[in-house]
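Re: [ENG-882] Designed sequences occasionally contain unexpected residues at chain ends

Forwarding the minimal case from QA. Structure tokens:
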């Protein structure tokens, strides 16, 4: 009797590294900065943490999808990031990057779906918060966008998206 060599289990994505403590520390540091000096370095560190994929396969898919997106191969990026999301459905950055590709392709509805999932997984993901705000602005959902911008700026007052904030009548920002 012979048995075919088939895997007993489908390949599964491991849990993403837990960087929540360091992320919270960085956001506290950002909020404590009296000037924007140092904010860029801290923001860059957040991106390093968010883009730290669960394993080598996930990292390769993320890196390739981001490379494709940066080169405006948006269809290729979405296909690659679809694979990442299918493989690692609990990894926020896969959804965030796919949302970015959709945003660049003016697929704002698709971007919002992915951004909502990313924010369910990582509620303080500043890239997803500001990405959702920018997407809502494109859809003329300005009140919702402004609320998200304020939420993001409460976490990091030095975000470039601060320029998109509209002062409510009768209030100072």
């Amino acid at each position: 009797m012979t048995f075919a060599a088939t895997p007993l289990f489908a390949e599964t994505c491991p849990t993403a590294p837990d960087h929540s403590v360091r992320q919270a520390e960085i956001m506290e540091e950002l909020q404590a900065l009296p000037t924007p000096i140092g904010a860029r370095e801290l923001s860059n560190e957040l991106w390093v943490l968010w883009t730290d994929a669960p394993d080598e396969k996930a990292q390769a898919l993320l890196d390739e999808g981001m490379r494709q997106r940066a080169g405006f191969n948006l269809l290729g990026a979405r296909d690659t990031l679809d694979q990442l999301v299918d493989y690692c459905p609990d990894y926020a950055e896969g959804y965030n990057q796919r949302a970015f590709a959709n945003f660049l392709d003016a697929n704002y509805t698709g971007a919002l779906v992915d951004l909502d999932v990313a924010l369910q997984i990582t509620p303080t993901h500043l890239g997803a918060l500001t990405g959702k705000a920018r997407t809502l602005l494109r859809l003329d959902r300005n009140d919702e966008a402004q609320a998200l911008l304020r939420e993001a700026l409460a976490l990091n007052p030095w975000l470039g998206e601060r320029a998109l904030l509209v002062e409510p009548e009768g209030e100072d920002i």
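QA comment: On inspection the terminal residues look reasonable. Helices lie at 20-32, 39-50, 56-70, 74-87, 92-104, 108-121, 126-138, 142-155. Proposing we downgrade this to a documentation issue.
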